[in-house]
Amino acid sequence: xxxxxxxxxxxxxxxxxxxxxxxxxxxxxxxxxxxxxxxxxxxxxxxxxxxxxxxxxxxxxxxxxxxxxxxxxxxxxxxxxxxxxxxxxxxxxxxxxxxxxxxxxxxxxxxxxxxxxxxxxxxxxxxxxxxxxxxxxxxxxxxxxxxxxxxxxxxxxxxxxxxxxxxxxxxxxxxxxxxxxxxxxxxxxxxxxxxxxxxxxxxxxxxxxxxxxxxxxxxxxxxxxxxxxxxxxxxxxxxxxxxxxxxxxxxxxxxxxxxxxxxxxxxxxxxxxxxxxxxxxxxxxxxxxxxxx
Length: 293
Hints:
The protein is an alpha/beta fold. The chain has helices spanning 40-49, 63-78, 92-105, 117-130, 160-167, 191-200, 211-234, 249-261; strands at residues 10-12, 29-31, 54-60, 82-89, 110-114, 138-142, 171-175, 265-267, 270-275, 278-280, 283-287. It has 2 domains: 10-32 and 183-240 and 247-284, 3-Layer(aba) Sandwich (Rossmann fold), CATH 3.40.50.2300; 38-177, Rossmann fold (3-Layer(aba) Sandwich), CATH 3.40.50. 37% of the residues lie in helices and 18% in strands. A 6-stranded mixed sheet has the order 4-3-5-6-7-11, with helices on both faces. Strands 8-9-10 form a 3-stranded antiparallel sheet, covered by helices on one side.
């Protein structure tokens, strides 16, 4: 549990919850994963680009997803996008068929959807059975889903082909997980070289979507320490890091916060910099086409 006034730092490679972006409460928390709420402008711009003005939202009743959809509803409503229905569910098998039918009755074709992976497969299995797919429907997925998540269908009554048919054409919006044009990271690695090194080191497959951000999290902490100690050395106040304890962390807390908030470097997961506790980054829009993005 995190508390107000926390004196030690936490740097996460995966946390996207909007709750932890409350800067007054969590000044010493940073995350290398771009928060769900930070992707809302891209989602809204996608809807606006195609001149859609009515959407519906369906999401799993999970803390992170519920907070994300609260922010989506506020953002879309503030930009004149009508949300015809916004509903959550706990039991995918019991509740989702009825909720999908309600959306069909409302004649809503643009569907914002937020689920964890196993739930997503079950929802799209239901959508397939109801015919909620194809050119008449657009699904925009919210949340972190690994590559080819729809091909693991042991937890549904549908085949790979049926779920593949249902998700065909769906949009997924998340941060670009890599450097563009073969750029080199601070570790002198391109994103593809990092992936090759990870696999050669017997890293687990399929590659986790957090593998690169985990690597960059270590670099974030190392560069913060290096820059802070350099500053202390210049003004003659350098503490001995190996002697630091939580009892004296208050004395160096502000330096760490300022240093990390102003940190910028190219990571294997893309450019790294922060706005408050959350990472700034490049947003990418993907569309599922056939068996790939």
